[in-house]
Each structure stands twice: as C-alpha cells, then as structure tokens.
Amino acid sequence: MQTRLTEDELVVQDAFGTFFANESPSAVVREAEQSGGFSPNLWAGLVAMGGPGMALPGSLGGGDATLCDLAVVADTYGANLAPVPLIEHAVAARLLATIGGHDELVGALANGTPVATMALRAPVDGVTRFVPAGAVADVVLAHTDDGIVLSRSTPPSEALPNTGGLPLAHRSLDGDIVSTDHATWDRAVDEWRALTAAAYVGLGRRVIAMGVEYSRERIQFGVPIGTFQALQQGYADASTRVEGAHLLAHRAAWALEAERADASRLAGMALLFAAEAARFAADRSMQYHGGYGFSEEYDVQLYHRRATAWILQLGDPSVEYARLADAEFGPRADGEAA
Amino acid sequence: MDFSFSSEAEAFRDEVRAFLAANLTEEMIEATHDGTMHIPALHQAMADRGWLAGPVPAELGGGGRSALESVILNEEMQLARAPIDAMAVTVIVAAILLEHGNDHLKRNVVPRLLDGSSLSCFGYSEPEFGSDVASAKTKAERDGDEWLINGAKMWTTMAHIADSVLLLTRTDPDVAKHKGLTFFLVPLDTPGIEIQPVPTMATERSNATFYDNVRLDDEWRVGDVNGGWAVMKTALKYERGIAGGQFPSPPVIDAAADWAHNHARPDGTKPIDDPTVREKLMRALIDVEVCRGFAYHCADLANEGVMFGVEGSMTKLFASETYKRHCRDFHDMMGAEGLLTHESPDAHLGGRIEENLRHSPVTAIYGGTSEINRNVVAEGHLGMPRAR
Ligand SMILES: Cc1cc2nc3c(=O)[nH]c(=O)nc-3n(C[C@H](O)[C@H](O)[C@H](O)COP(=O)(O)OP(=O)(O)OC[C@H]3O[C@@H](n4cnc5c(N)ncnc54)[C@H](O)[C@@H]3O)c2cc1C
Questions:
Q1: pTM above 0.95, yes or no
Q2: Which residues line ligand 1 (CB under 6 A)?
Q3: What is the ipTM of this complex?
Q4: Which of these CATH numbers, 1.20.140.10, 3.10.25.10, 3.40.50.150, 1.10.10.10, describes A185-329?
C-alpha cells in the first residue's frame, strides 16, 4: 500500500507539471478555443516530451509507462486544461496495441502523428456523433455490435461549437472491423474514465488554488475575503471532495493496471465522483470570485465550463450511474438495462 | 501508487471476518439497545487475541500492528455492526499513555486497558466548551504533593462503565488558553466524582461527570504540566484518522438494498426498479469507496510516521456528512414503513435504517464538528487565514 505518489511518479508529475504550466498557460487555452480546441504547438511539445506514446509498449516505440503514470500526467494536463487530446489519443493507441496487428500505425501514434481518438458513442448509420477530439483526429476507433472499427479519414476543419471549447465533431466511419473482442473496448473506455477522473482532480485542485489565491488579494469590508469563514468552509468542502477523488482516480488506474476484478467498477465510480467534485470546486471558486469570475477575463470560467463538459462527452451522468447499478444489482425488472 | 494489501494484511482481514462471524451474535448487538455501545464479551475475546494491543507500537510494548491493520479491524467491525466506541476510546487512551505517560501509567494502567480488564473514556468537553475545548476550565491545583480537581465535564460517554477518564484540566488560567492545560488519567472510583446519565435522541446514552475536590497523586498526570495541548493533538490524530468511524454507511446501504429488492411500494413497484433509487444506492457505494481511500491513506501516512491532521479531518468530515445523507435518502425510500423504530416488531431489520437516521447527526458533531474540521482543512491544507 502506497497511497502517495511514488518517487518515479513524482518525477513524472514534476516533468509534465512544469511542461504544461509553461506551455499551456491560459493564453494558449484561450487561443485554442478560437481554433477548434486544439493547439498544434502544444501537441508538438508534448510529442517531444514523449507524452502521447509514454504508456505504449517499448517494442512498438512507446515508453512502457503504466496507466498509473499516465494518470499522473492526466492530472497535470487537467490542471492546465491543456488543449490537446492526450487522454483520447493514449487510450486509442493502447487499444490498438492490445488488438495487435497494427504495429506500424501504433509506432506512428507513439510519435503523435497521426492523432487518434475513440468514439464514445456507438455509430448510427455509419456516423458517430460527438467524437471527442473528432475535430483533430485522423484515426477514429469506434465500437459497433459487430466489433471495433478502425476508421482513417481527414478530420473536419471545424469543431462543433460547445460549452467546453472542446474539439468535438461528428465523424463518418470508413473502415474495417479490427477486433470482435468487445471486452477490449470496454476496458479502453474504462481507461478513459479513470484518466479523465485524474484530469478532473487536476482541474479541481487548480480551480480551488486560483480561488484561494484570489481570496488573499480581494479586499471587501476592509479585509481579504479569504478571512470570511463562508469561503473557507466552501473551499474546505470542495478540497475534501477533490482529494477523495484523487485517491479514487488513482486507485482505479492502479486496479486497471493490475487487472483486478473490481477495476471497471472503480473506474466508473472514479469518473462520476471526480466530475462531481470538480464541478463543485469550480462552482465554489466562481461564486467566491464574485462578478469577476463570471467575466470572460478571469480564468475561473475556463475551468467551470470544462468541468461541466468533459464527462458529457460520454453522456448523461445518470446513465453512467444506471450502468454501474445494473452491474451492482442486476437489471431492472422491466428489463431496461442502461 | 499501490493500493494492494500485503498478504499479512489480507490474512488479518480474513481472520477478523472469521472471528466476527464466530463471536458476534445478533443478541449481543441487541443488548446495546440499553444505550451502552459496548459488548463486553466481544471486547474480551478481542483482547485475548492481542487485538487491543495491536495498534500500539511494539517498542512501547504493544502489538506493533500496522496502522493499516487497525483500519482493517475497524472497517470489518463496522461492516459487521459491532460497536467500536468503547474499544476505540480505550485503545486511544492506552496509546496516549504510552506516548505521553509516566512509568506508573505505563506499567499499571496500560496493560489492563490492553488485556480487556479495564475501560477508559474521554473527558474533554465541558458544559460551556465543546469546539473551543482549549478553553476548558475544570481546574486542577497543586495541594502539597497532590492535585485537587474541581469542575464539570459534559458528554463523558462510557464513563458509567469505564474505570478511568482521560481528563483535560486547566492548570494555569493566566496564560494563553492552549498553554495552561494539563491531562490526568483519573480513576473513576476516586472520591468526589459523580456520574449522571445524559439520554440522547438516538439509542446511545452519554454522561455528565462532576468533580468535587477530587484528590490525585501526581503519578496520574499525563504529559507535562501545562503541556496538555500536545497530548490533545495525539488524541485527535488517532480519533479522526484511524480509530474513528470511517465506515458507518455500509450496514445502512445493505439494509437499503435489501428493502429495495424485497418490498413493494403501495403502487406495487419495487424500489430497486426505480432509477432514482438505483442512483442513490450507487452514489452511496461510491462514497464508501472514497471513505476507503481516505482511511487507507491515513493509515499509510501513519505507517510512514507522518502527522495526518488534515487528512484525518477530511476523512471524518466526508464520512460523517455522507453518512447523514445516506441515512436520509434510504429512510425516505422506505416511506412510512421507515418510521418504525426498533421497538416495533414490524420494523425492517430491527429498524436499522431508522436507528441510523437518528444516530447520524451526532457523527458530524462529536470528535470535532464538521465546521471545525473544515476550518482545519482551510487553514492546514489550503493555507487560508485563521478564522477563529
Ligand atoms: C453523543 C455525544 C457523545 C460525545 N462524547 C464525547 C466524549 O466521550 N468525550 C468528550 O470529551 N466529548 C464528547 N462529546 C462532545 C463533542 O465532542 C462536542 O459536542 C463537540 O466537540 C461540539 O461541541 P459543542 O457540543 O459544545 O458545540 P459548540 O462548540 O457549542 O458548537 C455549536 C455550533 O457552533 C459551531 N462552531 C463552534 N465553533 C466554531 C468555529 N470556530 N467555526 C465555525 N463553527 C463553529 C459548531 O460547529 C456547531 O455547529 C460528545 C457529544 C455527543 C453529542
């Protein structure tokens, strides 16, 4: 049992934390919002860091890092709202590596070109809607009743305008079934859940830290607003939930890495809990920024919108709860499985 | 990170489960409805296995079990609905005496606390001071070689069955409040002590205790004169992080799932087929996993010798606030049937959810209120200014 980051994980955290802090300041996030939610420069920098391929097998050009390491990176990525599809790309590439037979493509993905993603919704009539990073990925993996489809096509030039400024797009699928192992797909989505949970923790911690910082500077009634207990109690609650989410997200990543029986359950739980914790943190921070937090100028709004958006790429959280409940308690009597 | 248990820890969990299955009966739990949350036979059986001494460091003469195993013991007991109150308090007092006590206390008192033959309790809170416990005014004065104690304590839970109380007293009224406190371990059969019951809205009772010219030898002093706050920190560390109730919810969730599966509502539907009920159950199960994360984290920090004040506060805050919500949600789910108390033969599972509903508010009050724990997090974790 080691519930703190290991020495190695601290090195990873330091390297990527510094990278994103320097290369993904809010100016970069804001600029990317104007151009479809993607920063090619930042992606190039991340490729130079070995980020996209770090958790791929060394034999395929990857860095042999674990999912636990990737979760640490996801946290630093979330803290800086990095406008690059790190999680989708890494998970899609890992999925393709697991499926096997695509060594050349996986090797290219390890180097960040092309960009890959996974469609979180099943396609209807050959179109899968709201694909995360769909506006920038050439390679789209999707899941149908027949199996996993690998589609390669040029992404649309524009993202769907959306709450989180994310590179979302609808994509037509044009490709072959590369695997009929449905469990492999489920596992990949669970990796997305666990990593997105970790990213939410980074977001939540940062949005609280921003608010606490602001509370030192903003003076009302002659004192810094941080001296008001109302703010302190709210931030303490938010921070408690975010730290709880941190432990759960990393436990889920560890469980997936160790292929434990409860891994899928923990991954689903971690995403739901972390999303809610981060949303609560963003809500408190916006509230305690007062009117300025609502203005475009302040960064808290960037965090608030992404806290709302990330999980919705997967769908209504209630459906996620229902899915977990089906696994926990069996399907409902009317047979309507989630 | 690594959330796996060592094979010893896994084996210990199995052992605890087997022990509870063999030694904890429904009759024993039933007997706690007299308001005393303690099962003497279970306590003794645990002592006989060395489990009370377990959490105490080996170099101090204890079992030297890892903090993680202490959490496992706690977790399994709470899952099995075994009351942990008296046991936890007694073990914490023993640990405090070993850390801060003199030879007399270590040689004559601690062994009896750990072999099951003696119980202790906490005497911190007073009628006028709870959260602001450092303002306690129960007075201890030197009188020759002895101490003379006068004052009153409120909420001295378990005092009516305990042999001693860990008493927080004021020894210097003229210095800053934290600097004039001293602890004593007071045998409760010392002349001048009176214990009166304090009934509560839940099943459990507590006590008010009164100290009228109670005379004590200096050998009963715990820690330095005016060094009481250091002792208090040790006490709170154990109480909030490791020995406290981090797992109050699972028996409630079990009962709720049982009800949801096996009872029809007046309209003939079963709660378990209602998506809102399923979501509430899932949310509760998620909260339990978060509590696990916190509890194991505190244990991990303790094993590393790290002080975990903030983490203990987060654990206690989260576990108690979510437990309150779970009780509310599942009591609601049962509708009018949920109102039946333990006394009613028709109450579901002996009125378990109803009883927890009435108990749950106190978990966010005792051992440091939620507001106080949020203060600790705001100051200690977020570096916000002191607001009290
Ligand atoms: C059933 C039961 C058993 C107990 N057992 C024991 C025991 O065995 N031994 C023992 O010593 N004590 C025990 N206690 C006492 C318990 O620790 C206190 O009740 C608790 O610390 C709160 O103190 P109080 O009741 O005096 O409330 P107060 O301190 O008067 O608080 C009232 C309200 O004000 C809030 N408040 C107070 N200060 C602040 C602040 N600085 N910032 C924000 N809000 C604040 C509190 O959070 C609370 O909501 C027990 C209590 C109960 C109810």
A1: yes
A2: B 121-125, 130-131, 155-157, 200, 206, 362, 365-367, 369, 371-372, 375, 388
A3: 0.96
A4: 1.20.140.10
